[in-house]
Amino acid sequence: MKIAIAGKPEKTTNYVRYVESIGAVPVVTLLASEIVECRGLLLPGGGDITPAFYGERNHGSADIDTELDILQLQAFDLAVQTGMPVLGICKGLQIINVGLGGTLVQDLEPDMGERHRYEEGDKHHSSVIEQESWLYGLYGGEATVNSAHHQAIARLGKGLSVASRCPLDGCIEAIGHGSLPVVGVQWHPERIDFERSGTDGMRVLGYFVSLINSG
User: Fold this and answer.
1) Of 16, 37, 75, 124, which residue is least crowded by CB atoms under 10 Å?
2) Are strands 40-43 and 2-5 parallel, antiparallel or unpaired?
3) pTM (global) more than 0.70
4) For the chain, what is the largest distance between any 2 Cα atoms, rounded to a whole number of angstroms?
5) 190 catalytic, yes or no?
6) What number is the average pLDDT over the span 185-197?
7) Beta partners for 41?
8) Which residue, among 163, 60, 68, 39, has the nearest Cα to 103 in the 3D structure?
9) CA–CA dist 177, 197 (Å, integer)
10) Catalytically annotated residue among 119, 173, 190, 195
């Protein structure tokens, strides 16, 4: 099974290992011709999305790669058009949201940012999971997740619903789509420390594979 990872080789090492851990073949590419040969699309973490793509000026975004944003948004659109299952992780979740017409909080308020941003390592906090969501079957009503972000979903994209939130500030931590095989998490299941969190990140990948196999 080939799974496309829409990113650059030097920035996707953790995601390659993640996909390989289940015996799938990771294909790191931004080419549509290679993506269509795969059975699923993983949108990885990374820098901030160019604010113009969701109708805003820059007021807090950083580490922007506009060319990469364009190619990732195109990859997501291709997956939607072909019915290919999609898993978005951190920035990948935000690509899904922006790709479906949603917007982002460009820089979290100081108290929220302190809770979520990467500082010499991932932050960890509780996430409350919606009972009707895809995530509930994996972890139940609550899980400890890792955070390494300073942006978050503001307005949800078309067809998306909240799968989990941080109970301390309402920050959206996971999403799902009502009719498409599209899911995303704001945290990092590919590198979460099970001993520290008690959360098995492989369950997210397992669910993604189940979407692929049911297609």
Assistant:
1) 37
2) parallel
3) yes
4) 44
5) yes
6) 96
7) 4, 86
8) 60
9) 26
10) 190
How many CB atoms neighbour CB 121 within 10 A? Answer: 10
Alpha-carbon Rg for the chain in angstroms = 16
| Catalytic hit among 56, 124, 188, 195 | 188
pLDDT, tens digit, for every residue of 43-87? Answer: 999 999 999 999 999 999 999 999 999 999 999 999 999 999 999
From the candidates 38, 90, 166, 171, give the one annotated as an active-site residue.
90
Question: Which two tokens mark 53?
Answer: 């793509």
Q: What is the pLDDT confidence band of residue 114, given thresholds at 50, 70 and 90? A: confident
Provide, rounded to the nearest whole percent, the portion of the chain with pLDDT above 90: 93
186 pLDDT higher than 90: yes
Q: How confident is the model at residue 113 (pLDDT cuts 50, 70, 90)?
A: low
Structure token pair of residue 76: 């997501």
Mean pLDDT of the chain: 96
Q: Annotate the chain with DSSP letters as a single string.
A: -EEEE-S-GGG-HHHHHHHHTTT-EEEE---HHHHTTSSEEEE---SPPPGGGGT---SS--S--HHHHHHHHHHHHHHHHHT--EEEETHHHHHHHHHTT--EESS--HHHHHHHS-SSS-EEEEEEE-TTSTTHHHHTTEEEEEE--S-EESSPPTTEEEEEE-TTT--EEEEEESSSSEEEESS-TTT--HHHH---THHHHHHHHHHHHT-
pLDDT > 70: percent of the chain: 99
Is 90 catalytic? The answer is: yes
Phi-psi region of 186 (alpha: psi -120 to 50; beta: other; left: phi over 0): alpha
At which residue do the structure tokens 């309402």 appear? Answer: 170
